[in-house]
């Protein structure tokens, strides 16, 4: 009998972290590697937020806090949901955790029973299916193709729902595609959910503020208020405020669910970092002026990457509405052989050969549930992106 839990056999390590680690190891060995796998902004945390963290230390706010968040942060979250999304919550409906990831796993651990199903549109963030498996549930993958802009249709959602469905996990703008659902597109999905009152919505809005052109963000409970009492609206400060290392995620939803999530957290990590919580208060309540400025940079980088990748032979790259990822198709490269002699049988082979031959690290599409594609994070400098895309063009030109 194995000493390790049988539940552990149901999950796998994060492929995105694995790619980043591999790129770092090659760099440490002296290789010229450009990493496009990390899902975090390259901007520094804004100064007012850092100052708030320092002030918290100086004021001695370094003790345990309430299990799922200080009252001041919960009030800031309530104000944020009202200001940005038109959603009314009170502080008893809010929970704060050690990053957005813990919010999601707390909700799943608090609600899943054996045999429960969770609908996950693909391409998906790599952790969604494994979180469901770890919580004892069964992920049901509904593929959204490049033909629909990587967005799930109402018919696809309807077809995926069964009597065992407990949650629908929704992410817009999306990691890995950057695809964002308009309010009208989202309304088509919420109309389906209204016909199935046993299905709850877990909406991951982490990239809410990272949107471009004329796209306007919307979230399910905002679009369809009738879903308010069975929606967990999840968010965090990691992406918009460049606070990935501070580890603060939050959510709002029905009191019973929030209480159950609090119970899970009380017996696992207990409270999030006290200093990070005070910094997050400033992030939400303080100036938001740098967000549109950062978005101008991200938009420029998106347009650069999309243009250069579409000039690469065999690659087709849609222009996404938000986040800082693109998800190009390599359908035109499959079956060919690289200049280094690697047969491109699938997107994993493509990504490995690209790293080995050209020193560009990307994440292969199978990790996100839809092939043949790969994910590029353009949260890095223009120079690095230009060089990386030039190398990708050269790699594709060498395929035969």
From TrEMBL:
It catalyses: L-aspartate + 2-oxoglutarate = oxaloacetate + L-glutamate. Residues 32-392 form the Aminotransferase class I/classII large domain. Its EC number is 2.6.1.-. Its cofactor is pyridoxal 5'-phosphate. PANTHER family: ASPARTATE AMINOTRANSFERASE (PTHR46383). Pfam families: Aminotran_1_2 (PF00155). One of its GO terms (biological process) is amino acid metabolic process. InterPro entries: Aminotransferase_I/II_large, AspAT/PAT-like, NHTrfase_class1_PyrdxlP-BS, PyrdxlP-dep_Trfase, PyrdxlP-dep_Trfase_major, PyrdxlP-dep_Trfase_small. The keyword 4Fe-4S does not apply. SUPFAM superfamilies: PLP-dependent transferases. GO terms for molecular function: L-aspartate:2-oxoglutarate aminotransferase activity; pyridoxal phosphate binding. CDD domains: AAT_like (cd00609). It is an enzyme of class 2 (transferase). This is Aminotransferase. It comes from Dinoroseobacter shibae (strain DSM 16493 / NCIMB 14021 / DFL 12). Belongs to the class-I pyridoxal-phosphate-dependent aminotransferase family. Homodimer. Keywords: Aminotransferase, Pyridoxal phosphate, Transferase.
């Amino acid at each position: 009998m194995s000493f390790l839990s049988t539940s552990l056999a149901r999950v796998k390590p994060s492929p995105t972290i694995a790619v980043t680690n591999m790129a770092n190891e090659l760099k440490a060995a002296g290789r010229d590697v450009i990493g496009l796998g990390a899902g975090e902004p390259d901007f520094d945390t804004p100064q007012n937020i850092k100052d708030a963290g320092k002030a918290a230390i100086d004021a001695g706010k370094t003790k345990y806090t309430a299990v799922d968040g200080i009252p001041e942060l919960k009030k800031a979250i309530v104000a944020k949901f009202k200001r940005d999304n038109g959603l009314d919550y009170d502080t008893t409906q809010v929970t704060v955790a050690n990053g957005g990831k813990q919010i999601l796993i707390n909700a799943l651990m608090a609600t899943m029973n054996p045999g429960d199903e969770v609908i996950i549109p693909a391409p998906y963030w790599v952790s969604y299916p494994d979180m469901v498996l770890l919580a004892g549930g069964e992920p049901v993958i509904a593929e959204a193709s490049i033909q629909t802009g990587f967005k799930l249709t109402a018919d696809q959602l309807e077809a995926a729902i069964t009597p065992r469905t407990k949650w629908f996990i929704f992410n817009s703008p999306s990691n890995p595609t950057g695809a964002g659902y308009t309010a009208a597109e989202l309304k088509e999905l919420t109309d389906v959910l209204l016909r199935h009152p046993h299905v709850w919505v877990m909406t991951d809005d982490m990239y809410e503020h990272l949107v471009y052109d004329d796209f306007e963000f919307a979230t399910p409970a905002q679009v369809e208020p009738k879903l308010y009492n069975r929606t967990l609206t999840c968010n965090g400060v990691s992406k918009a405020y460049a606070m990935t290392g501070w580890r603060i995620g939050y959510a709002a939803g029905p009191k019973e669910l929030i209480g159950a999530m609090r119970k899970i957290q009380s017996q696992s990590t207990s409270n999030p970092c006290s200093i990070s919580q005070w910094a997050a208060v400033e992030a939400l309540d303080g100036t938001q002026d740098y967000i549109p400025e950062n978005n101008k940079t991200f938009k420029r980088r998106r347009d650069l990457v999309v243009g250069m990748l579409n000039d690469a032979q065999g690659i087709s790259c849609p222009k996404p509405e938000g986040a800082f990822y693109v998800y190009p198709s390599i359908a035109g490269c499959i079956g060919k052989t690289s200049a280094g002699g690697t047969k491109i049988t699938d997107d994993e082979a493509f990504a490995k050969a690209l790293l080995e031959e050209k020193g560009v690290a990307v994440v292969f599409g199978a990790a996100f549930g839809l092939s043949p594609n790969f994910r590029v994070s353009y949260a890095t400098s223009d120079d690095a992106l230009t060089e990386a895309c030039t190398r990708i063009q050269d790699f594709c030109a060498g395929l035969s």
